[in-house]
């Protein structure tokens, strides 16, 4: 009897021991009993998101003209049922558009697309884009960062105003009609030596800086043009920032285009040096933005004369959306004289003789342009 009792106690002890040390292994198997309900992940997120998402409930707009400057703008006001974040970006093609994303919102079914007269905007369309609302604003012409603002305003219970997303868009200023005469005498030419000051631009294998080369060439071009009777506007005449230290890229570039716009230059020319990861790549190229009927003509005249002067590979005249050639109101071009990343071309850029050759090429290109443009009058 005593043996049976001892055996019973031993079995009881082993069961308890096994149960204690088996617990960690069996615990994960118990997790499904407390897991999320068996619904698809996408459906769960969508259901919770839509129930909590602010709703874009109403859109209104107004035109405004500044009393002092006479500049006009259009303001879109979009009411939202809760706080949201919004941002915008301009898309160049195939037609200019301002794309505004209002994060975490749903457009109400009552929100309809809008059509305008095209002076400031042409059309506004609304669509759900995942968990966000995408607002597409069709523009009559290309815009830049300084041409629009997207921001939010908090709700104002006392004034009974909800949370709002605001889009301000400036009215495009019409370009003047140009009429050119042959020759360089009395022409007003804006020269923009690329980079400068805190911005060295591209740096070559032997540490020659783009800002140094562009200023050296620009000064030579200035001397040649003034000798030919032209008036030259330099965006910078020394190693400095044009807008000022710590400026944003838009502020710096706007300062350069404003220097030409405010003094009503006949043409604007930005001088740069190219660079590429493959050091064997070289050549000369010119860029234009076709805002007038003369921009392509100017770029082609400069490209032809620069290739004749420098004898480097012809990388052609190409369209581009560069800020300074887009924001200037006169025919404009941006030239890339050579590749500073190419060791051979970097050596050339250092040479005063090569700098003078390219400067003469620029002046001949400008003269060629005015002769061709005068025939269009």
From TrEMBL:
The keyword Signal applies. Keywords: Hydrolase, Signal. The keyword Hydrolase applies. Gene3D superfamilies: 2.60.40.3500, Zn-dependent exopeptidases. Residues 1-22 form the signal peptide. SUPFAM superfamilies: Zn-dependent exopeptidases. Residues 257-367 form the MurNAc-LAA domain. InterPro entries: MurNAc-LAA_cat, N-acetylmuramoyl_amidase_3. It holds the Pfam family Amidase_3. One of its GO terms (biological process) is peptidoglycan catabolic process. One of its GO terms (cellular component) is outer membrane-bounded periplasmic space. CDD domains: MurNAc-LAA (cd02696). SMART domains: Ami_3. GO terms for molecular function: N-acetylmuramoyl-L-alanine amidase activity. This is N-acetylmuramoyl-L-alanine amidase CwlD.
């Amino acid at each position: 009897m005593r043996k049976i009792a001892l055996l019973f106690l031993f079995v009881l002890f082993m069961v308890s021991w096994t149960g204690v040390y088996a617990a960690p292994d069996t615990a994960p198997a118990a997790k499904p009993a407390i897991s999320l309900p068996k619904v698809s992940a996408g459906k769960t997120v969508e259901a919770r998101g839509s129930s909590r998402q602010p709703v874009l409930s109403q859109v209104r707009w107004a035109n405004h003209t500044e009393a002092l400057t006479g500049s006009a703008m259009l303001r879109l006001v979009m009411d939202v049922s809760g706080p949201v974040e919004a941002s915008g970006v301009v898309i160049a093609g195939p037609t200019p558009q301002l794309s505004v994303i209002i994060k975490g919102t749903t457009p109400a079914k009552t929100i309809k697309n809008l059509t305008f007269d095209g002076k400031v905007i042409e059309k506004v369309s609304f669509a759900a884009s995942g968990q966000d609302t995408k607002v597409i604003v069709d523009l009559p012409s290309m815009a830049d960062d300084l041409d629009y603002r997207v921001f939010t305003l908090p709700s104002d219970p006392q004034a009974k105003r909800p949370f709002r997303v605001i889009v301000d868009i400036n009215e495009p200023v019409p370009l003047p009609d140009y009429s050119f005469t042959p020759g360089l005498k009395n022409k007003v030419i804006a020269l923009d030596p690329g980079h400068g000051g805190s911005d060295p631009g591209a740096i070559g294998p032997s540490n020659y800086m783009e800002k140094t080369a562009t200023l050296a060439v620009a000064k030579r071009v200035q001397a040649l043009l003034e000798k030919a009777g032209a008036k030259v506007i330099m965006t910078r005449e020394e190693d400095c920032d044009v807008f000022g230290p710590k400026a944003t890229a838009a502020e710096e570039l706007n300062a350069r285009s404003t220097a030409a716009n405010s003094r009503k230059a006949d043409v604007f020319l930005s001088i740069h040096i190219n660079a590429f990861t493959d050091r064997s790549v070289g050549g000369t190229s010119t860029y234009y933005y076709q805002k007038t009927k003369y921009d392509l003509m100017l770029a082609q005249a400069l490209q032809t004369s620069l290739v004749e002067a420098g004898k480097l590979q012809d990388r052609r005249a190409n369209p581009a959306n560069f800020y300074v050639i887009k924001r200037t109101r006169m025919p404009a071009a941006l030239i890339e004289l050579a590749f500073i990343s190419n060791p051979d071309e970097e050596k050339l850029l250092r040479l005063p003789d090569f700098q003078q050759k390219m400067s003469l090429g620029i002046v001949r290109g400008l003269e060629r342009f005015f002769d061709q443009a005068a025939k269009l009058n």
